[in-house]
Write a structure and sequence with these properties.
alpha/beta, Aminopeptidase, Alpha-Beta Plaits, six-stranded mixed β-sheet, 12 strands, 16% strand, binds zinc ion
Amino acid sequence: MTTVSAEEREGAHARVREAIADLRPLLVDVSMDLHAHPELAMEEHHAADRLTAELAREGFAVERPVAGMATAFVGRRGTAGRHPRVAILMEYDALPGVGHACGHNLIAAGGLGAALAVARALPEVPGELMAVGTPGEEGEGGKIIELEAGVFDGVDSAIMFHPGSHNWAIRHATASCHVVMKFYGKAAHAAGAPEKGINALNAAIHTFVHIDALRQHIPETSRIHGIITHGGDAPNVVPEYAEAKFLVRSLTMRGAEELLAKVKACAEGAALANGARVEFETGRTYAERKNNRVLAERFTRYLEATGETVEEPVLRGGTGSSDIGNVSLVLPTIHPYMAIAPKDTPGHSREMAAAAASERGQEAMLHVAEAMAHVAVDLFLEEGFVERAWEAFRTSGPDLPA
Ligand SMILES: [Zn+2]
């Protein structure tokens, strides 16, 4: 890293503030565009088209597809492979039924804003700036697929944010596993020859009952929740096929995988009792989260300079999960939360979907974009900052609730 004077650094930070003010109409438009076109995990073509077009317009070299995913991308500025390498991450998938109830449209617009602001502040990036499109956060583990494909190899810091109902610089997250259960039975006339049928739906229903019994004996911070996605085709046909999907969460990956084995045993027992057969499709395990305190403290300072107040994090109880956890176990990472809705509004709710298109949502997105861009500028220009982030990474573990 070449030494940069304090004046030059302050000039770059001033350009970040100017860039965000200038980009405001564009970023609001991008967030509303994505909100109006909710796309499910791994089907985010409109979002990926829009985001890559905006990056290309600002001179980013855009690679897409990435890691075999059509809606994953990386936009680059600076010198490929040169350190420091700073990745700003975007998510843009929506949820079935409730649209952008997780506010990923704001994650996308805020990440885009931060990346464009850094590019404008540092016309010659002294390292490599990566704007990474990470599809399929809602269950498909796009970031895990990118990690496995080497997208994050040699990256010094990963920065993103998530909308919510509190301003938090750090928070723990549970590890989680997705499992699809496929129950196979035998069709027969439900009235004329029920004794000749094998009821796959009964096996699915009894799986829920077994899991409810298991709940008495799991840690308070673990979660098991599922739905039936197929329950038969007609009431007068014994269901020959039934399908359920579950999420199994625990404080750590190891805990989640152990609990998953018990959940699978519930399904196997239910299948056996009904003479049915069950097969499992297990997804990628989302890891617990390691928050980088050096990056989080710097982020807090810059976010508060925009007029926001950052609350003390609540490190207790169960929480949601994200594939950013897997990234955070490999390199210095921050994933702060921005309040876009009144305190304690549940995520994945209709209220949160409305907040993701609200004026407060836009304001929070612009503030966080600015703060993330300032942190990235410091990673590029401040001597020793990247090293301090790595030191904190090496000397701390994942955040677990008390
Ligand atoms: Zn989310």
